[in-house]
UniProtKB/TrEMBL annotation, chain A:
A single MF term (Gene Ontology): oxidoreductase activity, acting on CH-OH group of donors
Domain of life: Bacteria
Name used for this protein in its record: GMC family oxidoreductase
Required cofactor names: FAD
UniProt cross-references to Gene3D superfamilies, sorted A to Z: FAD/NAD(P)-binding domain (3.50.50.60)
Domain called Glucose-methanol-choline oxidoreductase C-terminal: residue spans: 423-542
Family according to the record: Belongs to the GMC oxidoreductase family.
Record-linked InterPro entries: FAD/NAD-bd_sf, GMC_OxRdtase_N, GMC_OxRtase_C, P2Ox-like
UniProtKB/TrEMBL annotation, chain B:
Domain of life: Bacteria
Protein name per Swiss-Prot or TrEMBL: Gluconate 2-dehydrogenase subunit 3 family protein
Species of origin: Deminuibacter soli
Pfam family of the protein (one): Gluconate_2-dh3
Length: 559, 189
């Protein structure tokens, strides 16, 4: 059927899928974008975004029903009354935990681009070269100079605000004007910079919230309700940015409720001919054909699709010939750091709710520093004045308590480390054929854990934070390690890694599946190592780069 | 809330006690229960008076004006485990018993001054209890009542806009806003 044939199919509509659809349609291809969940329309479907706190019945707290329905989501801040509908249905879509694994998923148009943390940082050659230099896993097939123009391109379209800092480990980008540090953060930043002679720096977070009007989107209004969806389009999401661009070309067909079950592979041409889906609402099966397929279903689901494809040729699925598909799963381990109190700022406060914090770029194992572990970590944090939630030990109840609570409390400042996780072959996701989801499909089985390298790093993540805060004159500093479960960083990556050799990697340096050259995987699955910075900006850049390559190859008749 | 807020929340959890959020983040145990039983109208009226004593009418309205009793009823029914529901519900009787013991009359028959004195005693009692409380020990009913009162009041329209300050769409950020004693705190961050 004619309407079932497209130039390209994009599986998934999150950050990577949205970028793939935008780039492919703008290059003139007729594109079908498949999304397993429902549609969420920009602005119209952000049902809680303009509500006041008192209009949320339980004021954002958790009901017993929410805890019962969302046992995984309840393990972290993710379970919240205000955007409950943005998270995957755990009853319909279970998974198996051989070892504890937190998988926080967004099954709807836009995916996690609606709820993401929006911190956006470039990788440097310290990161692209680390595996090769330390003989860990395999070498990245690309270096900074190859991705740098694509970072420029991605930042310019997405709208990333940030400051130029000239730090080699965290390259500067095409930034919109930075958000502002508050007075405590500014003073602490100046003291840290001086104390560590510029080796450690506090900078304002680089964030995908626009600080100027951009492509018809309104600049960030400092509401700090991003994860409900922004009616101003103040932050980058599929809905606010890539989807409207793709729709504008007239070349996009978006099909929600489409669960891709396999990529259809032709062993004669050694290429994919399209995909097979189950309609999530009707349970009917459909086949769609295309010249190229972009797999952007989120790292672990992209691996799942590959593992379910071409199993008559490779029992482990498409891309499994290397033995690496589903392996080398990585994330960022976090929730260790320190916090304390800033004195002498009682006459200072803030206006507006800044959905961004400060960032401390990595300094460990760089520029001559050497630790008893590899790689490093960055910190996210910020200073703020306590509100009514604080406890005032010396006050009981009544008017004195009410009066005290009506005023702000102490200034506090906190830092939380986000650490690199090494890619261990044995950290793996696989198909659990004994357990099925609502549609009778096998589910993923997670078998991942952090090891000594990460555990040693966590101690530094606590101690360094405390040392820096104390050096900056912060009082009553306390360290913490609130514990980490694999996946909790919501930066799962690595399950179909890029490499230079088809024997040891799933994808080549253009995100092309070695075993099917018209299939591209450009989401977190492709990452060969995790670095310690938030990864989504890198997916954007790699996706745009891979589309450019794919379309060029298509025109040359190579695909 | 976003991840940074959640992290600062975690940071606070390690240090200070966050009334409300701490309890609801980690205090609820998962059970199969889908919601508990309703409190009676009398209980809700009683809790209105307890809430009003904790957050009284001053230059701005107090907790009774925001329907704090009905709010507590909803939260206890929907959010609490069976165990904490029982502690809370039995706490209503315990509070009245404590009133009879201290003031020789029921809580509702007491004067505002007597009510305040009683609840200050109970607050001191719960604070002392939590100083040595082990994780598996039960919650103290008065801490639950105080938490729900503060949560319900300061997140209500009255609490957020009259006793605190709230602007739905700030539009810009100033990280160096002058502050003088008496200026109100922001309702949300």
């Amino acid at each position: 059927m004619a309407d079932q044939t497209y130039d390209a199919i994009v599986i998934g509509s999150g950050i990577s899928g949205g970028w793939a659809a935008k780039e492919l349609t703008e290059k003139g291809l007729k594109v079908l974008m498949l999304e397993r969940g429902r549609n969420i329309e920009h602005i119209k479907d952000y049902v809680n975004a303009t509500k006041n706190p008192w209009e949320i019945p339980h004021r954002g707290m958790r009901t017993q029903k929410m805890l019962t329905d969302h046992p995984v989501l309840s393990r972290d801040y993710t379970l919240n009354e205000a955007n409950l509908d943005y998270w995957a249905d755990e009853q319909e879509c279970p998974y198996t935990e051989a070892k504890p694994f937190d998988w926080f998923r967004g099954y709807h148009v836009g995916g996690r681009s609606l709820m993401w943390g929006r911190q956006s940082y470039r990788w440097s050659d310290f990161d692209f070269e680390a595996n090769a230099k330390e003989n860990i896993a395999v070498d990245w097939p690309i270096r900074y100079k190859e991705i740098a123009p694509w970072y420029d391109y991605a930042e310019t379209f997405a709208g990333i605000s940030g400051s130029v800092e000239n730090m080699p480990q965290l390259p500067d980008g095409k930034f919109m004007p930075p958000m502002e540090m508050n007075i405590v953060e500014k003073d602490v930043a100046a003291r840290v910079k001086e104390h560590y002679k510029n080796a450690r720096r506090f900078i304002i977070g680089r964030v995908a919230n626009i600080t100027q009007p951009h492509n018809g989107r309104t600049n960030c209004q400092y509401r700090n309700k991003c994860w409900l969806g922004c009616p101003f389009g103040g932050y980058f999401s599929t809905q606010s940015a890539t989807l409207p661009a793709a729709v504008k070309t007239g070349n996009l067909t978006l099909r929600p409720f489409s669960i891709v079950t396999k990529i259809v592979y032709d062993k004669n041409t050694k290429k994919a001919t399209g995909v097979e889906i189950i309609d999530a609402e009707t349970n009917k099966t459909y086949t769609f054909n295309s010249k190229i397929v972009f797999v952007c279903a989120s790292a672990l689901n992209s691996a799942w699709i590959l593992m379910n494809s071409a199993t008559d040729i490779w029992p482990g699925g498409l891309g499994s010939s290397s033995g690496e598909l589903g392996h080398n799963v990585i994330d960022h381990h976090f929730r260790a750091g320190a916090s304390g109190e800033a004195e002498g700022y009682d006459d200072k406060y803030v206006f507006g709710r800044r959905a961004n914090g400060i960032y401390v770029p990595r300094y460990r194992n760089l520029f001559g520093d050497k630790r008893d572990y590899l790689r490093g970590f960055g910190y996210q944090g910020g200073a703020s004045r306590q509100g009514w939630q604080r406890e005032i030990a010396e006050l009981g109840i009544g008017a004195p308590l009410k009066d005290a609570m009506s005023e702000p409390g102490k200034w506090t400042i906190g830092l939380t480390g986000f650490g690199e996780t090494l890619p261990y072959h044995e950290n793996q996701v696989s198909l659990d054929k004994d357990k099925k989801d609502k549609w009778g499909l096998p589910v993923l089985r997670m078998d991942c854990e952090i090891k000594d390298n990460e555990k040693k790093m966590r101690k530094d993540m606590m101690d360094d934070a405390a040392e820096m805060l104390e050096a900056a004159g912060i009082k009553n500093v306390k360290t913490y390690d609130a514990g980490y479960t694999f996946g909790m960083g919501i930066h799962e990556m690595g399950s179909a890694r890029m490499g230079k050799d088809p024997k040891t990697s799933v994808l080549n340096g253009n995100n092309q599946v070695w075993d099917a050259k018209n299939v591209f995987v450009t989401d977190g699955a492709c990452m060969t190592s995790s670095n310690c910075v938030n990864p989504s900006l890198t997916y954007m850049a790699l996706t745009a780069r891979a589309v450019d390559f794919a379309v060029s190859e298509l025109k040359k008749g190579n695909l | 809330m976003n991840r940074r807020d959640a992290l600062s929340r975690v940071g606070l959890l390690m240090g200070a006690t966050v009334i409300g959020s701490e309890f609801f983040l980690s205090g609820c145990k998962n059970t199969d229960k889908k919601g508990g039983s309703e409190l009676s109208k009398d209980d809700i009226a009683f809790l209105d008076e307890v809430g009003e004593t904790i957050i009284p009418t001053t230059s701005t309205p107090g907790a009774k004006s925001v329907g704090i009793g009905a709010f507590m009823n909803m939260m206890v029914k929907d959010c609490y485990t069976d165990e904490n529901q029982k502690i809370f519900t039995e706490g209503i009787g315990k509070l009245d018993e404590a009133s009879k013991k201290k003031n020789s009359k029921s809580f509702l028959d007491s004067t505002p001054e007597q009510r305040t004195a009683l609840l200050n005693d109970l607050d001191a009692e719960q604070k002392a209890y939590y100083k040595s409380k082990k994780k598996e020990d039960p919650e103290h009913y008065f801490k639950l009542m105080k938490q729900l009162t503060l949560l319900g009041y300061f997140t209500s329209e009255t609490g957020a806009t009259k006793t605190l300050r709230y602007i739905e769409t700030p539009g810009h950020y100033d990280g160096n806003l002058p502050y003088k004693k008496g200026d109100k705190a922001w309702a949300t961050s």
